[in-house]
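# step 3/5: fold
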Amino acid sequence: MTDTPANQLIGRLFYQRSLRVRVTLSQLPFFLTVALAALLIGVLEPGLFGNSQLVVSLWLNGILTLACVVVPWDKLHPASYLVIPYLDFVAVALFRDGIQPLLSAAGMLALFPVFWICAAGMAPKTSVVSSTLASLLIVWNPVFQSGQVSADALIRPLLFPFMMLAFAITVVVLTTSMDGQRDSLLEKDKLLRAALAESQHRELLLETVVDTVGVGVVVVDDAGNDRLMNSTQVAIHALGRPHDIADPEEKELLLFSPDKVSLAPEDRPVRRAINGESFTNYQIWIGSGERARALSATARIMRTDDASSAGAVIAFHDVTDMVNALSAKDDFVANVSHEFRTPLTAIRGYLDLVLEAPEELPKDIRNYLGIASRNVDRLSSLVSDLLTTDSVTLELSRTEVSSLVAESLASATPMAERNKVTLISRVEAPMEAFIDSRRMGQVLDNLVSNAVKYSPDGGTVSVTVTAKGADLWCEVQDTGMGMDSGEQALAFSKFFRARTAVRSSIPGIGLGLMISKTIVAKHGGTISLLSKQGVGTTVSFVLPGCLSPAKGTPAIFSAGEPALDDAP
């Protein structure tokens, strides 16, 4: 039984009514049919109203119908109302005998109580048997009243009870089937309502959670239509609204690139997501003037089972304070670096004066001053690079790699002795490479000094340099403190310092690895870090195509760098 409009109408008009109304509606067809038959009798044969059986049947019909309306069936036993259809059999029997000469088919009125009893769904077998017996008594009643009881007289009217038996069985079967289907539908309806309530609860929970987070979240379908937008995103959306548009579309919002230039339509975060692009930390500005805010956008694509796009989820994080803080920090570093230049220039000048006559100095003092002079140069270079790492320029020349490693280890020797760290050099000598010796010396100094600093309890720091074809491979390995996976992911970030280093008060500002990565990248190379807490750290970098060819053979340079003549 499907939930069709007809079934819904029947439910409203019958099943959803009170028991008293249902009992009255069930009796009403029988009452109206008998009333219509009485009207026909009054027109065709009014003399029949003198028959006492007819009069009693009519009164009984009226009284039973009145009882359906008056009796509070809801307060009685659930099956108590079935007394009405059973008494209807008595009314049918009296009515049939009272108008036998006029309407011989009056016994068919028994269909009404048979249907009512069998469709009630209570004790189906008993309903069939009792309905059949009542029908049998209706047709045998005249035989018993005539006093001429015989086998032939009792057998002759049996067709009618058999018909009632078949009708009762049919009604019981259909009713049982319909009741089963109705129960199944009610159970399904209960499950659906529970699922709907659970879905509504989950939706409310999702909306509450999404509104709780301090990140703007918008969900769009594959056509770009908004499906969900939390309260934070509504506020962010309002920041980008033009003054002359009350309800702008996404393409009309005031969005700008990090350098405050209007974004092209295809560069807008939502449009990129709709086009199937996933991205992380895509920085934009929204709004203009004092209301402008910096946002970091992240998008992920929703995929169906066939891998097609079903839309996207885009999150917008307000990073204005962080951007302003970074800008203030850059300004501070720029000011500090400017203040560093004057004392560094003075130190540089006095070292040059002392080293003008190196033969007059003891050898060890001369070496110490040489190391100090070289590190002053590198400190000056570091100050210059604090805010301009992208503008690092290279001056390539033929360089002996083993000398660079030796100089770097010599610079780190005093600290290594204090930390009881053994320095080891493994360099394939001789090995010449076309590199910027000053810059690559800075990289080695950064890596070796880090390895020594982060080995405060002693250990070993080794520098291994090998040649693989025209590529130079370098590995700086220590047995120091190490880092966890989260710290490794941030190791090359600007101003990043590991928690263990901060807790141990190890000096540093978190620029060494970042600058080293920039210099290696300028050489066309790559740098990587592998670390484990309590075991140590290994930093490796590769400079492709930089090893010096034989004299007269063209040199190999990284892409984008100018070729230089061979050094003498």
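# step 4/5: annotate
The first strand starts at residue 216 and ends at 220.
# step 5/5: archive (pending)
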